[in-house]
Amino acid sequence: MSAKKRTMSGALAGFLAFIGMSVVAGILVTAAVTPALALSGMAASNTINVFENMPDYLSIDQLAQKSNIYAKQADGTPVLLASFYEQNRVEVSSDAISQFAKDAAVTGEDPRFFDHGGIDLQGTVSGAVTTLAGGATRGGSSITQQYVKNVLVQKCEALNDPEARTTCYDDATEISIDRKLKEMRLAIGVDKNYAKEDILRQYLNITGFGGTVYGIESAANYYYNTTAAALTLPQAASLVAIVNNPVRFQLDKPDSETNGAANGYAANKVRRDYILGEMLEYKKISQADYDAAVASPIEPVITTSATGCQTAGSSAFFCDYVTHILKTDPTFGEDEDARLANFRRGGYNVYTTLDLDLQNAAVATLDENVPKSFTNWDVGGVVSSVGVGTGKVLAMAQNKDYTQDPNQTGANFTGINYNTDQNAGGSMGFQPGSTYKVFTLGEWLKEGHTLNERVDSARKSNWGTFTNTCGETSFPGFNPRNDSSGENSPNYSALQSTIGSINTGFMGMAKKLDLCGIMKTAEAFGVHRADGGALDNRLSSVLGTNEIAPLTMATAFAGIANNGSTCSPIAIESMVGADGTELPVPTSTCTQSVEPEAAAGMTYAMQRVMTSGTAQASNGSTSPRVPMIGKTGTTDDAKDTWMSGASSKVATVVGVVNVSGKYKSQRSTRFPSGIRASDARHRMWPDIMSVANAKYGGDTFQEASNTVLRAVQVAVPDLRGKTMAEAQSTLTAAGFTFADGGVVDSEMPAGTVASTDPAGGSNADRGSTVTVSSSNGTGVVVPDVVGKTEAEARAILSAAPYNFQVATGEQAVTEAGQNGKIVSIDPGAGTGATPGSTVTIVIGKMAAPAAAPGGNG
Known about the structure:
With 857 residues, the chain is α+β, with helices and mostly antiparallel strands. Among the domains are: 8-53 and 91-219 and 226-247, Penicillin binding protein transpeptidase fold, CATH 1.10.3810.10; 433-696, DD-peptidase/beta-lactamase superfamily (Beta-lactamase, 3-Layer(aba) Sandwich); 714-775, Trypsin Inhibitor V, Chain A; 781-845, Trypsin Inhibitor V, Chain A, CATH 3.30.10.20. The chain has 28 helices and 24 strands. Strands 2-1-3-9-10 form a five-stranded mixed beta sheet. Helix 11 packs across helix 13 (266-281) and helix 13 runs antiparallel to helix 14 (287-295).
């Protein structure tokens, strides 16, 4: 029951009862039985309530410890990025604790620790007398009892529910006889089940040393910049002094009036010297040791063990990404609260995929090329690199300083990771521009089209109706122009459109595809909106208007480079628990986004982008050279600019983006370094990929097959005599592009098709342009004069209505019947021609017989 104010007679009665308790205390110590409670003055009915359902003892469990996130150097050496803790504790073994600290704890807190059975009755009775007389429990707790209390408090701290945690804590720290007796019972159980050295070790590991510092190892680190094993005698006594009253005796408040640096940390020194005296009395130290220790000043060396990703410096945003994985991935717990608690209390060592060589290159090139802030422009610079075939996030950097402090509000500060999705601490994403066109290319090849197949790429005010099985089909008013005025061919091939990033070429490709299919191909490469919404599949999306995180695009480009197999990104390579046990971590899942043959066509085209297309500036500056693919991207008004690409080993996306608000056209803006903003991408990408190529190398990409490269040959339909409208629809249905060849003289009825180029019946590349000419109705058909004599042929051809000019030619023949006869005519019989034009007739001619051979006689 709770402690209450008592009358003097009541207190005296309780005191006498407690005297009686001490007489039979051996029973309590030996058997840990509850009847002894009756001797405390409590009613018999309370006895059952106190111990009902109580365990016999508290097990020595793993304590809450700080967790660490590491990167690895090239030789495998771990480099600490950041630590996280609610309690700054590093649990250590007994042999890693100075004997001075052990002796100081025992002599200062519980001199009879090694002799009693978990509770020191002499000290307990002394404390209980004070409690019973004044109504409050204080003093007299053994080290084992203090350990029990700390364990109960720690179990409360581990609860995720704030209300339950508060209730639990109040119960564990309640000032009452009930709580004290429960504590004694559990202490006896602990003493029965564990060796004294184990209890002392865990006591020193669990106890608080002020603030968030817990355990002797972290206390040694924090207050004296040393280890628990290396503590000197005065340091050990000074730290143990803090345990008695952390608020009063801790050493990180130099301005304290009672325990500050100016007065030599007087309060701590008094308690320290008392402990040293106890150590001398119990013969744990010599007189000389005591004299030297008491004479030494208290000189703390406060060494902060900061918590959080801000300690990770230029890798802070990657660190932030890792913490979001630890909080959200079900591998680490059933819900977010449990996952976070597990991480902050679990003493995990998390080894990440970060490649410090690539990371340092990314940070250096960002610092050189993109300022942290810029007048009237919230400029962002981003880099994400992913391992091809592994999904490992190798680099992640941006041009800002990381902070989660709301008081740090400069333009150079942000807590938002521009490289990741919004639900992973990132932004709402950025439009990738033309880098997104690679997914239309992938869908084009998936559907059996080829790189050299041509499309209608002339600019139009209205592109008409599109196929879209999961959305809109008509987009009036959307008529994108090409980036350069010289890009105006009416029939670009898919390859040309990719090399030059021709907008109208991709419109023409999309016209022959399902917009929903393009979206699904993007999704197959792991592409999704950064804000968690569904990908837009309207026509404008073909040109990259979905807001996507850079890491997502890097993952997709790694998938293209991996023969079309996309591996989900991972940032954690391994994780080890506090006890050295290897723990499960999320693994990368690889899925075939497009078949290898289609992927080979994509990489063929994207290699040409690097060598002769829009990414030549990045390709030429990369050294050493390995086979590489790439695609540039520029959004409307050059608001955002991108360079994305990969070797067969590493994919990298770099970008200069507008984070928010007003923006500047990057083509007309120069950074303080003097470089044009839109050119920064072509300086950063080679810097990073040069390091990647030197470290990882690069193999040739799969060779594209003829099926992917060549245009499919199909027959040109015979359109003569059809209307021009019929001709256009027939050609479109056959996969050709219609072009109007104007009006020509022809025997065909006026306004109908006079001729096509290529001619009807011949084969041509599917998707190529067929030029159609209409008849003016004034032409004639060349008559068939083959087999007639020259005189007969001339008479026919020169007479009305032909009035042809006749030209002649000869051709050797072997048959007598062809000698002197017409063997061919140009234009051919049946061909439309203009009256009065020239027709050439070819006359057959046999060679003269050879002379008979002569003799000598």
